[in-house]
Amino acid sequence: MSWFLSHTDQIWGLLGHHAGLAALPLLIGVVAALPLGWLARRHRALYTPMVAGAGLLFTIPSLALFILMPLILGTGILDPANVVVALSLYTLALMVRTVADALGSVPPGVSSAALAMGIGPLRRFLTVELPLATPAIAAGMRVAAVSNVSIVSVAALIGVPQLGSLFTDGFNRSFVTEIAVGLVACIALALAFDAVIVAATRLATPWTHRRTS
């Protein structure tokens, strides 16, 4: 406990870095997955190759991808942009299928009614299909958020400061307290991300709350 109290500033700093490195790729990946998932659902011939391609992307080991990013982007090995880009790709890989399947779960009658009212494809997607698909998309976001919090810690192995730094430093010094603090902080951050997504989903889809209450 004494170590924790004497290092609170350091822990909060690492927690802030960790949160930023996990949250930004989540937002980027979800925004990028929305049009791709829509295309995969609208054009059935694209569904299998896009979903399969995204699945293959997620099989790339995170450490290898972090190391490859500087070679691809021309950035420094310690540049946080490497982590952001890599995790954005992982989020995209997770979310493309989620978005496509979520849009596919929208009742056909609803889309047909919107079409009959003269609502165009883009407006129908934004005002009818996407709101109805939001709960399913949010479920995928919860998985991606927790995954990002976990994977970010691996970046400590290449020197990017965040909560994973507590793991590597604690391991090198055989200091269990530091490792335990990092573990608890990661779990707390993942739970916080999950709570924010749940709350935002409830605010964005009030009709589902009223229906189940």
Automatic annotation (TrEMBL):
Record keywords: Membrane, Transmembrane, Transmembrane helix, Transport
Transmembrane annotation, as ranges: 20-39, 51-78, 132-159, 179-201
One GO-annotated biological process of the protein: transmembrane transport
Keyword Transmembrane helix: yes
ABC transmembrane type-1 domain sequence ranges: 15-202
Similarity section: Belongs to the binding-protein-dependent transport system permease family.
Protein name per its UniProtKB record: Osmoprotectant import permease protein OsmW
Organism per entry: Acidipropionibacterium virtanenii
Gene encoding the protein: osmW
